[in-house]
Amino acid sequence: MSPPESMERPLFIPVILGTPRQGRISEHAANFVLERLAAWKDVETTLVDVREVPAPTRGAGEDIKIPSFSELCMRADAFVIVAPEYNHGYPGLLKHVLDTNLKEYIHKAVGVCGVSAGPFGGTRVIENLLPVLRELGLVTIFWDVNFSSARKLFDERGEILDPAYAGRFDKFARELVWMAKVLRHGREGVPLEA
Amino acid sequence: MSEETRKPLDCPRCGLEMNRHAEKIAAHAVGEHGREDSSGGVLYEFHTCAACRFVLERPSA
């Protein structure tokens, strides 16, 4: 039996870098994630830097929908969010940008990579993001990646120093890809019962 | 559910019949359609095109 057409199309999984701050260590984490995900079989990806998403701040939600970002989200099968932990929470601009869409997220998978200077690797920002992502209609996976002690984790060129992160990310990516495939099948071919 | 909302949507981009796969309360639509539920939102349904990935929403009946 041949797989459905939707299973043959590569998955598109953008990586969202969730902070605009100067000197952000999360950029190194996002580049690491992007590089590993780009090497994944049958996955296409790109980096979405919230700093570059032209979201007006005099307005909110779908009232300030950004066509290029909405189109990218519509095309996406899943998302990876790389988010630093700021005072135990998520960056305000990340939430502002995410809130500009809704229908583009429904029944799509999302995984979160937390970044923090301390030993918990953004655990609290991940926990705080989960209810937001759920309300946006996204489906969260149960693997995270926690970039701990981030200031010491990357060298001056932004290369990760701890080789264990490759295996941790691959576990995360395997689950995300599985969820993305299943949800795409559902979105495109499994009707909601009346 | 009315006859109009039972009718499947055709994709405005490629013409294929879309799949209605979700219903969800959407807070952003309050005031536009005047059918708020007890949570203060409006119930929307969501449709996806298998051919071009286009998505549409419309208020549920």
List the helices and strands and how they pair.
The complex is a heterodimer of chains A (194) and B (61).
Chain A: H1 5-8, E1 11-12, E2 15-17, H2 26-38, E3 43-44, E4 47-49, H3 67-75, E5 78-84, H4 92-98, E6 108-115, H5 123-135, E7 138-140, E8 145-147, H6 150-153, H7 164-189
Parallel strand pairs in A: 1-3, 2-4, 2-5, 5-6, 6-7, 6-8
Chain B: H1 3-6, E1 19-26, E2 42-48, E3 55-59
Antiparallel strand pairs in B: 1-2, 2-3
Q: Mind explaining what this structure looks like?
A:
The complex is a heterodimer of chains A (194) and B (61). Chain A is of the alpha/beta class and 194 residues long. Helix content of chain A is 39%, strand content 16%. Chain A has seven helices and eight strands; from the N terminus they run αββαββαβαβαββαα. In chain A, β6 (108-115), α5 (123-135) and β7 (138-140) form a beta-alpha-beta unit. In chain B, a hairpin with a 6-residue loop joins β2 and β3. Chain B starts with a helix and ends with a strand. A three-stranded antiparallel beta sheet of chain B has the order 1-2-3, with no helix packed on it.
Summarize this structure briefly.
The complex is a heterodimer of chains A (194) and B (61). Chain A has 194 residues and is of the alpha/beta class.
